[in-house]
Structure formats: structure tokens, C-alpha cells
Amino acid sequence: TDGGEVRRHDAIIVGAGFSGLYQLHLLRDRLGLSVRVLEAAEGIGGTWYWNRYPGARCDSESYYYSYSFSRELEDEWEWTERYPEHGEIRRYLDHVADRFDLRRDIQLDTRVTGASYDAAANRWTVTTQGGEVFEAQFLITAVGCLSTANVPAIPGLERFAGEWYHTGRWPQDGVDFAGKRVGLIGTGSTGIQATPVLAEQAAHLTVFQRTANYSVPARNGPMDAEFKAWVRENAAELRRKAREATNGHPFDISDRSALDVSPQEREAIYEAAWERGGLRFRAAFRDILLDKDANETASEFIRAKIRSVVKDPATAEALTPRDHLFATKRPPIDTDYFETFNRDNVRLVDLKAAPIEAIVPEGVRTRDATYPLDILVFATGFDALTGPLIGLNIRGRDGLALSEAWAAGPRSYLGLQTPGFPNLFTVTGPGSPSVLTNMPVAIEQHAEWIAHCIAHLRENGLDRIEATPEATEAWVAHVNEAASATLLPMASSSWYLGANVPGKPRVFMPYAGGMARYRSICDRVAREGYEGFALG
Ligand code: NA7
């Protein structure tokens, strides 16, 4: 503030999405701490505040992409569709904020620009764009994993005469595509969700594809009365399954190998999985992400589906993924994605055949053509996991910058703490299973672990917790080993590896050992007096 006033709290939480809301509730209402949440956006919702592009919805199913900590909350909220749309998720989070009276401790429109640790005082000083200064013993980042937009540096963008948008920073009031020639760059989960909706809304859509992708039908639809009743009856069991699952989803993964069945049986199993749709397609066999030959059967099944849906053979061929195996990059799910390329007003441009050279005032120029456009949409992803954290300009002991500590890739203990940064907790940080999991399950586990940890410190008259370098080295090695036990590191261009951002170190960032295993490791660490952490 102008008067140089410093606001003091026990804890500062950065971000008011799924993580920040629950962390506030736990620290304030269960532990009785003084807490302030600082949020850059003008509303609650975190990632879901910004992702409002046409077709934006969650790939986890609504009845388990939600909090499980309050039975009453669960009972009073009704989802309308199998997969929640962005607006419905925001309404849910707004409801949570009201219901638990969270808003009075959340400061919106407040972008954190720096945070530094003073060892003598054992305090974090947090500064904001508006010039405010906060001090707290604990700093908790709840900034999401896919929240720093990646807009590729294509020459000429500043001279584009039309409008352009990144999907992860979508205007609050939406964009009017009626009558427009629209270009979409990117065919990850986002581009694949947006394509069919843009094709409906725009006069013409050009999809610029660098890498063809696999996608499985979501089979979205309304939650009918029968399904709602089934969810209510089985709520406790579904939550238990989600908590105990390797990926935070309450469905069973088959215990059969794709290679142990006859080709006919395999085809029938994949057909049934294709009909059920969504992320559970992967559950058809246990070894799709573990064995290359097993995976190839799933990859080939989807390639055949693409050929059977897309009528123009050249377009079908260009849409057929060959550079990576199914689900080694985050697998999209869709509503009529491949079907959309049968429309008269949709064109696919294969950038492997002719890369983008520049953006020109009238549109996008590739090596062999110029495509005139009124609106350009970047569905080009995010500086995942580390981007939002490094963007906070965090400095720990002796002025050590997080960007320096992580110069060769993120190094955390359990994804929760980094040596040199005492009392800093990173919810769903790199090294945690977050992005490989149904996110709310990972978030609840992290927020609860952090709350227990802070309670432990206070009960024992301790002020400080910091990951040791040795435990961190061991965890980084374990994260690598867990990834290597799967096919995931094989997709050399995935954002799991940081490969989508030029100059970013190539390190497999999430923990691929499974949510259940991760949870038991975290529980054991806590039980054994916070093994691997120095307490003081
Ligand atoms: P992704 O999955 O990172 O996808 C980004 C897409 O944009 C992908 O197809 C990229 O092609 C493409 N891309 C990125 N940069 C360029 C340039 N310079 N030129 C052309 N094409 C480019 O991001 P999403 O937003 O779809 O999904 C992120 C996560 O959000 C998703 O996994 C869910 O967890 C939710 P590439 O494959 O790199 O060749």
C-alpha cells in the first residue's frame, strides 16, 4: 500500500482455484490460522476462470471431478452432464466459496510479482503488482499446472490484422465467430475440444496441425435421473475407489494384457471401450502404457477408427498419428472431432508437409500457401508445471531464485517442497502425480498433507520445515525411475517432458508411480516424523 503497510498472516496462498479454496478452508477453519488468498483473476476458479474457449470442458467425469471432503456439499450439488462444461465448474467453485464463507479471505485482481524468504525472521514477504506487501510464515502456491499460456514466437504475429486469442486466456465475455474465417493452431486436448464447436459457429475453420493426435469419443450427455440416482447411491464407494486408484478415477483397470487375448476378442474389448468412451478407454487392458506391443494394438485400433470416420483419404491420412504411441502424450477425448473434418467449411492444414513460416496481416503463411483469416486461435498449450511457479519470482534462502534452483529441471521432494525454500509448499508441484491424475483427488491429498504438516509443526513448537537435498535427490531419481517403467517418456514432444516450450529443460516432470503409491509414500513420510525434511 502507499503507506508501506505490511499485512501479516500465518499463511499466504497464491491462487483461488480448486487447490487454493480447499487449502484456505483447511488452514483457516480446521487449524484456525490467519490466511490470505491472493488471486490474479477477477473471479474464483483458477484454471477454469481462464479456460472459456468454445468446447472447454473437463475430461474427468463431473460426479468425481469435484471435492469429496464434504458429504453435504456433495449431496446438495447436481451436475447436469457427464463431463462438466467450464461455466458449470465455475458455478460449482463459486458455490463452494460461498458455502464455506471463503470469499472474505480471498483477494481477487491481485497478481503476485515476487516472494522472498528472510531466514532470520523465518518469514516470507510477498509483493503484488498493485504494490501491496504481505508477510507470512508459510507460503503455499496453488497456481495450477496448466496455467501459463504458451504462445509460440511465430514471426509477424504483431502485424496480424485480425483478432487473436490463446485458449487459456480466453476473454470473459467470449468471442463472436459468426461469419468469420477462423484459424486454429494446435491439436492437443484443447484444439480437439474446440474444433467441432468452432466449425459450427464460424463461417470457415482452418485447423493447423503439427502433430496428428489420437482421440477417443467422450460420449458426453446429460446426467439423466437414473444415472444421478446411481451416483447418489454409490457416492461413498465411488469416492473410495477414486482415492485408492492409481489415477484418481473411480473405474477399474482391466487386469488382462492386450497380448493375452485373441485378435477377435481384443477388437471386441476395444469396441466396447470405444462405446463407453472417455479416459476409461485406456482401462481396457492393464499394459497399454507399459508395453509397446500392447500399446500398438490400441494405437492401431484408433488409427483404423480415424480412417473409417474421415471421408477424404488424404485428410484421413494426415490426421492419423504415427509420431507417438497412444496416451504417451496426454490423450484427448472429444465430441465429433474427426467427424468435423467431413464438413464443407473445415480444412486441415498439415504443418509437417508445409510448416508455418510467418503470420502476415491477412492470415497465416505456410511454406506453400497463405490462409486468409479474421480470427486466429492458439490452442498451443502451456508452460506446464514449472511455468506458473517460476513466474512468481520466488527467492528462498540467501536470495536463491527458484528459476536457478530448477535451471536444469524441477527438483522437488514429493512435489511438495524444494531445498532452500523453507515453509514453501507447492500444491500439485512437479514431482507429484497431479497431471497424471483426476486432479481434485491429487489436490485434496496435497492440501490435507500440508495442513497436517503445519498442524504437526505447531503442536510440537516447531517453526520451520525444509526438504533436505538428499531426500530431494532420491525423489528426483525415483520420479525418473517411475517414468521409465512406463512408455510415457517415449513421446519426445510432450509437455510432460517440457518439450513444447523452446529452451525448457527436458525432464519428465510428473510422478508416474501412481496416485495410490504416492499417497502411501506421503503418509509414511509424515508418520515417520517427516522423514527427508529438516524441522526446526
Ligand atoms: P497441448 O497438449 O500442449 O497441445 C498443444 C498443441 O499445439 C499441440 O498440437 C502442438 O503440436 C501445437 N503447437 C504448439 N506449438 C506450436 C507451433 N509453434 N506451431 C504449431 N503447432 C504448435 O496443449 P492443450 O492446451 O491442448 O492441452 C493441455 C492440457 O490441458 C491437456 O493435456 C489437458 O491436461 C488439459 P505438437 O504436438 O507439439 O507438435
TrEMBL record:
PANTHER family in the record: L-ORNITHINE N(5)-MONOOXYGENASE-RELATED (PTHR43098:SF3)
A Pfam family recorded for this sequence: FMO-like
Name used for this protein in its record: NAD(P)/FAD-dependent oxidoreductase
Species lineage: Bacteria, Pseudomonadati, Pseudomonadota, Alphaproteobacteria, Hyphomicrobiales
Keywords: FAD, Flavoprotein, Monooxygenase, NADP, Oxidoreductase
Needed co-factor(s): FAD
InterPro entries named among the record's database cross-references: FAD-binding_Monooxygenases, FAD/NAD-bd_sf, Flavin_mOase-like
GO MF, one example: flavin adenine dinucleotide binding
Record family assignment: Belongs to the FAD-binding monooxygenase family.
Top-level taxon of the source organism: Bacteria
